[in-house]
Amino acid sequence: xxxxxxxxxxxxxxxxxxxxxxxxxxxxxxxxxxxxxxxxxxxxxxxxxxxxxxxxxxxxxxxxxxxxxxxxxxxxxxxxxxxxxxxxxxxxxxxxxxxxxxxxxxxxxxxxxxxxxxxxxxxxxxxxxxxxxxxxxxxxxxxxxxxxxxxxxxxxxxxxxxxxxxxxxxxxxxxxxxxxxxxxxxxxxxxxxxxxxxxxxxxxxxxxxxxxxxxxxxxxxxxxxxxxxxxxxxxxxxxxxxxxxxxxxxxxxxxxxxxxxxxxxxxxxxxxxxxxxxxxxxxxxx
Length: 286
Ligand SMILES: Cc1cc2nc3c(=O)[nH]c(=O)nc-3n(C[C@H](O)[C@H](O)[C@H](O)COP(=O)(O)OP(=O)(O)OC[C@H]3O[C@@H](n4cnc5c(N)ncnc54)[C@H](O)[C@@H]3O)c2cc1C
Prior knowledge:
- The protein is an alpha+beta fold and 286 residues long.
- 38% of the residues lie in helices and 22% in strands.
- The N and C termini lie far apart (60 Å).
- The structure holds flavin-adenine dinucleotide.
- Residues 23-31, 33, 48, 68, 92-94, 98, 101-103, 105-107, 109-110, 115-116, 159-160, 183, 185 line the site of flavin-adenine dinucleotide (FAD).
């Protein structure tokens, strides 16, 4: 197995262009498990750990640009204010060791339907910055990034450079069902983000369809019918939950039954909307 170790972003892009079969490795919390378990034996590994810029986050205009390698631990410590949904999801990932190594870039690269960063990225309307040596930068909306189970819009010669997320302008919540409280891959998960300026609510469903996905009809319902100054209408909340559940398309597997996942998505949708709405009204009153 070849081991490629670029020290700059340009070197990394060149290495990926010359060796599209090289598997990028960042924290290695997915890649090393697969190699150790003999799930795959790549001809080459492309170690991105020397590319320092991938570990930086910056404010760019009205967006937060989070380098692909910023680990979950730093998202929790440094970005919980501007990106509360992503930080909540990060808190539920694995264990302290996994959160020190694992990154959102790696979660996107793996593109597992159960990845915890996906629902909050969808709800917030994030963009994924990818780049190749030949074609330069592409900005891919999160809801166009996931193509199938562990398949993404990333081309073989492209690398993920960063994810761009607008700092929250309203409450955001992430909720995850697992078989225990830590070190657990989601049975299913749900994220919500209120965008009061646009009178819009974003959603993200995890581990309940072949890809992470938004509940579009549920979002449209709230865009049409939500009164942003009034207490939440219980009938509207119920309808929102039903439409979120209907947007899920899960399977039965070792972690849970499809019927349970559909039910749980509906429950989490109602709960997170209520939590977010309480914060929203509390802020208005304050
Ligand atoms: C014990 C354990 C518990 C876990 N718990 C959770 C959990 O609760 N929730 C969860 O979502 N995940 C969990 N995971 C999975 C894993 O930690 C996450 O998916 C993590 O985000 C992967 O990040 P990484 O930097 O380690 O990625 P890596 O393992 O380095 O890479 C993952 C994938 O992304 C690709 N990749 C990495 N960087 C780039 C890049 N810049 N450009 C293109 N492709 C790239 C790699 O080639 C690979 O396909 C767990 C893993 C373990 C071992």
